[in-house]
């Protein structure tokens, strides 16, 4: 299946149909395709690597069990993200307040990111930034947001999804997405004041 | 939208697990699926196999409403049939030959057979003549 994928891009619809027809390798291809993206979604909402790993396993198991009921009314991408978001928000509601952050390493590629360079060494940069410290503060700031606001910020700011797609995944209007983003950004601006340009 | 906050948050894209994590992830997924299968009750596995034998079978959306309506209809029919049977039984009871009712103190003094010598003997079970039982009563 991996070789097949490499030769030609198989559509999600085709992979879903094959999975529904009883081909588990087709679902493996979907796991390979979406695990990285879903990891980003769950990790940025939980700020904990171990929780993310467990949740991601549960999300794919749940999707595999439910895929026979998938009728293609939305894209598979939207359907899978909806499952992931709902399960993550349910998990966060039950998680103890005394959890500890368990953060992944920041990829060294960030040092070459134009936005990072602009923020940290441009003429308007407020201070020299220690990458570990910035990561810690960003995660702390994210965890101060409500689950609903954090979901929107994760999907829009970190994953780059359009408002309409976020609205479909969360089952809310585009206007609500924009309003949640506005309030979340205002909160984050306060928490991250020292890292933002004057 | 606050552009500085947006740019700062974009940096979080670089927080990613080690490169071999996603390769191991699929293996772990397979292991967990096998473990789940062992833990699942046999009945669930049986139903899954039955369903997979008929992949095109789907319970129609209105089937549950149909079943509920049929159950209500069946109950109503049974109740109606019972009510229809009631007057027949009352009629039979009203027209049954009179039976002497004795004070409790005299019950032991007379033989049951000598209560009404003109009438043929009949048997009463829980105050209801056996011969007048309708076949639908239960």
Question: What portion of residues of chain B is helical?
Answer: 40-55%
Helix content of chain A: 55-70%
Order of helices and strands of chain B: HHHHEE
* Major beta sheet summary of chain B: 2 strands, antiparallel
What is the radius of gyration of chain A computed over CA atoms, rounded to a whole number of angstroms? 19 Å
- Indicate the CATH class of the largest domain in chain A: Mainly Alpha
CATH topology of the largest domain in chain A: Rna Polymerase Sigma Factor, Chain: A
The largest β sheet of chain A comes out as: none
Biggest interface between chains: A-B, 50 and 28 residues
Number of helices of chain A: 10
How many strands of chain A? 0
Average pLDDT across residues of chain B? 72
Q: How many separate structural domains of chain A?
A: 2
Rg over CA atoms of chain B: 38 Å
Which quaternary structure do these chains form?
heterodimer
Would you give an account of this structure?
The complex is a heterodimer of chains A (198) and B (138). Chain A is mainly alpha-helical. Chain A has 10 helices and no strands. Chain A folds into 2 domains: 1-98, Rna Polymerase Sigma Factor, Chain: A (Orthogonal Bundle); 106-198, Arc Repressor Mutant, subunit A (Orthogonal Bundle), CATH 1.10.10.10. Chain A is globular, with a radius of gyration of 19 Å. The relative contact order of chain A is 0.11. The mean pLDDT of chain A is 88. With 138 residues, chain B is mainly alpha-helical. Chain B has a domain at 1-65. Chain B is built from 4 helices and 2 strands; from the N terminus they run ααααββ. Chain B has helices spanning 3-10, 21-39, 42-53, 63-94; strands at residues 124-125, 128-129. In chain B, a hairpin with a 2-residue loop joins strand 1 and strand 2.
